[in-house]
Amino acid sequence: MFTIEIALRSTPMPVFVHRKEAAAATELYQTVVQHLQTGERTILELTCEKVEGKRVAVVTSEILAVQMLEKSSTATNSGAGFIR
User: Fold this and answer.
1) CA-CA distance, 24 to 2, in Å (whole number)?
2) Contacts of 35 (CB under 8 A, 6+ apart)
């Protein structure tokens, strides 16, 4: 399972969506990065493959950062996040 974490301007908590396959996660990551590079103000609609029915729409001009993480099989005390 892969987690895509998106940090938004003026929002303390990031938005998380999950992808089952590496290719799908990489494609979503690249899509968000492209929106960061262009700086255009559009709406990006996201769905989650882990939580059925989870949908979120974000204004792309409010995205500050994005990261992609692979959930490992070993348990750790730290979860996904930009700041520890």
Assistant:
1) 9
2) 42, 44, 60, 63
Query: What b-and-e string marks burial along 22-41, b requiring 16 or more CB atoms within 10 Å of the CB?
Result: eeebeebbeebeebeeeeee
> What pLDDT, in 10s, does the model give residues 40-70?
899 999 999 999 999 999 999 999 999 999 9
Tell me the C-alpha to C-alpha distance, in Å, between residue 19 and each of 11, 15, 53, 77.
23, 14, 14, 22
Q: Which residues, 6 or more positions from 46, have their beta carbon under 8 angstroms from its beta carbon?
A: 4, 15, 17, 28, 55, 56, 57, 58
**Residue 71: which of 8, 5, 6, 27 has the closest Cα?**
5
pTM above 0.90, yes or no: no
* 50, HSE (Cβ side, Cα atoms, 13 Å): 12
